[in-house]
Specification:
Blueprint lengths: L5 E6 L4 H16 L2 E9 L13 H15 L2 E7 L12 H15 L3 E5 L6 H13 L14 E5 L16 E4 L4 H10 L13 H15 L4 E9 L7
Helix pairs in contact: 1-5, 2-5, 3-4, 5-6
Length: 234
Amino acid sequence: MRRFDRVLVISPHADDEVLGCGGLIAAQVEAGAEVHVLYLAVDGMRHYGLDGATSYRQRLEEIEAVRATLGFSYDIAYGDMDLTERLDTLPRRELVDLFERTLNERRPNLLLLPSFADYDQDHLAVFGAGFAAARPIAQQFGKWLVPTVLLYEMSKIQWAAEPMPRSTAFCDISPHIERKLEALRGYKSQHRPSPHIRSEESVTALATLRGAEIGVTHAEAFGVLREVLSTTTD
């Protein structure tokens, strides 16, 4: 598969990166790419399907387990600040500044954002700010222009108030589906049995469907915001 030198994944919560592009992350790391995940809100909280609350420390331990499985580096923007499902209360300018700063520092060749086709207010806030931060400004003016910007989808896409956008880019993750599922299991507080949308069965079913669209066993699908076919930037 095509290898990107530097990949940045912006993940509203700790599990979105696995659900949306865990297979691509595994493939890129295996190919030698530097993959960095920027988590936005990481908090201890109560979750549907669990008897008790999850602590912030537990969430950090889960991230470490998933990092070890997939091989990425990471930062947490808002740790233990009670901002899960409240990122939309932050000024968009604050998020845009954060993302611009990260893009300029890390200079990714591939940027992965959550899709705008989502009911989750955190995902919408992150997409809006990420889209603004990735706007095209020539590099001679001092801003890093990411050549490839993709949107990853979630296994909860069946709950949508509007027609879903058509996926136009795919990554064959057939060799990496088990690694993706192992990473999902690493998020013990988020992993659920079937028929939950974060069950291994649901995640595999979506990967199977996307794979059938390109003639492979399993795939992840993406929306394309920008693809520079040839560039001299580094």
